Every structure is written in C-alpha cells, then in structure tokens.
Amino acid sequence: MLDVLIVGAGISGISAACHLEQRCQGKRYAVLEGRDNVGGTWDLFRYPGIRSDSDMHTFGFNFKPWTNAKAISDGESIRDYLTEAVEEYGVKEKIRFGHKVEAANWDSARQLWTVSARSSSGESVEIETRVLFMCSGYYDYTAGYTPDYPGLENFGGQLIHPQQWPEDLDYKGKKVAVIGSGATAVTIVPNIVDDAAQVTMIQRSPTYMFSRPAKDAVANFLNVILPSKWAYALTRWKNIYMQNATYKGAREKPEKFKKLLLGAVTKSLGEDYDVATHFTPKYNPWEERLCLIPDDDFLSAVRSGKAEVVTDTIDKVVENGVLMSSGKLVEADILVSATGLNMQFMGGVDFSLDGEALDLSKRFYYQGMMFSGVPNLIQTFGYINASWTLRADLNSAFVCDMLLEMDKRGAATCVPQLRPAEAAMQPLPTIAGFNPGYMQRGIHQFPKQGEHAPWVNTQDYLLDRKILASGLFDDGVLQFEAQTGTEAELSAA
Hints:
Blueprint: E1 2-7, H1 11-23, E2 29-33, H2 41-44, H3 56-59, H4 75-88, E3 95-97, E4 99-107, E5 112-119, E6 124-134, E7 158-160, E8 175-179, H5 183-192, E9 198-203, E10 209-212, H6 217-225, H7 228-252, H8 254-269, H9 275-278, E11 291-294, H10 297-304, E12 307-311, E13 314-318, E14 321-324, E15 329-331, E16 334-337, E17 350-353, E18 356-357, E19 365-366, E20 370-371, E21 377-379, H11 388-409, E22 411-416, H12 437-442, H13 461-470, E23 478-482, H14 485-492
Parallel strand pairs: 1-2, 1-6, 2-3, 4-17, 6-21, 7-16, 8-9, 8-16, 9-12, 10-11
Antiparallel strand pairs: 4-5, 5-6, 13-14, 14-15, 17-18, 19-20, 22-23
Helix pairs in contact: 1-11, 5-10, 6-7, 7-8, 11-13
C-alpha cells in the first residue's frame, strides 16, 4: 500500500513527486503515467514551433532554476528540463509508464483509495493508496476538438489536428490553411511559412495578441552576475508581479488595456492594415486568454505577406480548400484544424465512494484543489491567467503539509466538509469571467465554486500563496479522522 499515488507525469505530477522527495522522504509513493515518457502535454504535442505560452521563469518549478537563455522556450527544451528534474530528484524510478488509470474507489472502512489502471499490455492493475493526487491535466489526450465542417468529405487534401501532428507531414511547397486563432494557430503559422507555398489563418473571430522578446534580458544579465538560484528567484518574482499587475489592470480598465494591445498590433502591421477586422475581438481582454507572440514572429509573417489572415465564417469545405461565407475561396492542400481541445476532468477516471458512483461536478472545490465531502483526494488545475506551474507547486507543497499534519495528529483522512450554514450554498461556475470555447464546451464536468472562502477558486497566485502559508488545518472546514481500529492494527503489524 502507498501513502501517495500521483496520476500523471507531466509538469504537475513531476512537481508533486519532487516535493515529496524533498519534504516527505519516508512516504511511499508512485507515479502512474499513461504514456511512455514524462512530459504530459510536452510529450504529446509535436507540431511545428511548439513552445511555452508563458515565461519559463514562472512556468518552471520553484525548486529548479531555468537557465536556458530563452524565456519563451521550445517544446524540446521543456522536455529536457522535465527529464532533468526527474533524474536530479530521484523520481524516475517511481514512475510506472504505460499505466492508464480508469477508476478509483474510496473505501471508508479501510480509509484508502483502490485505484484501477490498465497497462499498455492490457493487464489490469489495482493499487491501494492513502492519498490520491490527480495531476492529469484538464483535457482529453486521445483527440482534440474538430468542428463538423460541412463538406469535409469532399476535401481532396489532408486534414490535420495539431494534437496528432504526423511526424512525416510534408508541407513544403504546399498551400496550408490553419483554422483557428488561438495559441496553437499563431505558433504554427510563422513556423511553416518559409517552407509552405502559402499559409492562411482562417478565424471566425480575432484573439488579443501581444508580443514580447523570447529572451529575458534582465534574467540573462542576472545569470551572469549571480548564482543561478538567486537569478532565477529574482526573475521569477519580477514576472509573477508583472503577470498579476497586467491581469488585474486588464480586468479593471479593459478599454485602456485594449487600446494598448491594439496600438502595438497596429504599430507592427502598419496603419494601412485592417486591424479592426482581423485583430480586434468582440470581448474584453482576459475574458479569454491572450496570445503571446515571441519576438513578434506571427505579426512579422503577416506583415511580410507570407501569411494571410482571413476573418469570416466557413460556408463549406470543397475539394481544393475552404469556401467562406463571403464567397472567398481559401485554397489548401492541407487543412490544420487548430480549433482547440476537449476538456476532460481528471483524466476521465470513474470515481466512487464505497462503491457508489461519485459525481464530482456536484461537489464544491475547496481552495481550488480538494472536494467537499471527499477524503484524501487532491487535484491540480493551474491558473488561466498565469503560469500553470505556479499553482502546481502550491498544491504539491500543500500535499506535503497535509501529510505531515496527518502524521502529527495520527490521522488517516483529511476531508473538507461543508459547514451547516453552507448546506444551501449557491453553486457558481468553476472559473468566473473566462469563457473560451473549450471552457464553454467542457467546464460542466468540473466541481463548482462556492459563494465565499474557502470554496472560492481565486485564480490569484499571490492570494493563494498567502492563504496556504497562513495554515488551513484549523480552519474548521478540513476535518481529520484517526485510523480505524482495523487499519491501526494492520499498520502496527
């Protein structure tokens, strides 16, 4: 039996394991990973130009400095960083690759989770654990989201989704239409324009974009004059405060922020470019995620004429391309459906309590990571307005604190319980004021927020860090239960 079972060996799972190695060395733990490598998202996505969409000084772990000169870094460098982490912290031997978790049942009498997984060879495996830490991300790895394009069966070329980008895809000298306007589309376009004959980005509506250098000059200067840990910490805090101020400024003064963003795009593309049509969204900044453009690469491709942006709705797909509602034909040999992902709550695992199906969408989030009335279950869901890893490291630290507190109290379980006055609390959306398409399609699977703390998913790193540092174990919500007689006897034996 394990003390902790971590599900997923991407950024969240590696963070969890490394924190356990540093702070809870006596605990027995394992990591189950459905794929054959570490990295999660960064092992899955292999499309041209795949990169981080936030700086690596906050996207990196709080315990391992990012020393690469590029702060906005490519997928291969990120995979190398994660591989180094599991080697340096002795985590690799704890990872069981090729194990897809299918179900998990909490046994109240025995005070443990029984987790059912299937190996890549088809073998069914059961693992018992005190604490279950779900670090499996928030989307379905098996397939991305592709709309039902009218007439697609008539297309004479290839349809590609970036989530399953073929290694041998040859786009040299071909006409490529990239459908979508998010981070994936604006990454692919500038990275294929030099080889493709023509690249067109088709979007139904624009996305806010902002440019920043791929290299952080301050970080690289500090790395020259300071030890790497000091340089990393200073850069990390600089970027955390900048992210926080930018987000709050955008939400508090949307018109001012919108003017700054569109002004920068106009400056890059020129006064003659139709920024109003192609780069001015109908929503306010940060009601959907902003697109980061390192070194202005996407706008440079558009400015040069190598890439074209078409803003219109699709009428139908025809044999040689896409016919728009305006009557314009976008010719294409290859269609890239960069249209987003399918959300999947905690890897699609079937949860149950004492054999009864557990619908977590009807539970409340506790501090954005545990669930009302559910013992010893933690999930990492990162920030939508800052780097994912900031939240992952907070959750990993909380799990270590929780394990140490359970030892101190002689407890076998830790469960957040609604107080009597909260029984009729109004359920609110998991994340408020953030409405991209993938969220609208899939957020119903997720638990709800409550009307007040500690049932609020703050999406505020500085606030969450303060809350967790202040201590939660005597907040009257987290309840600890000692080992039952049977389990205590088994542990003693």
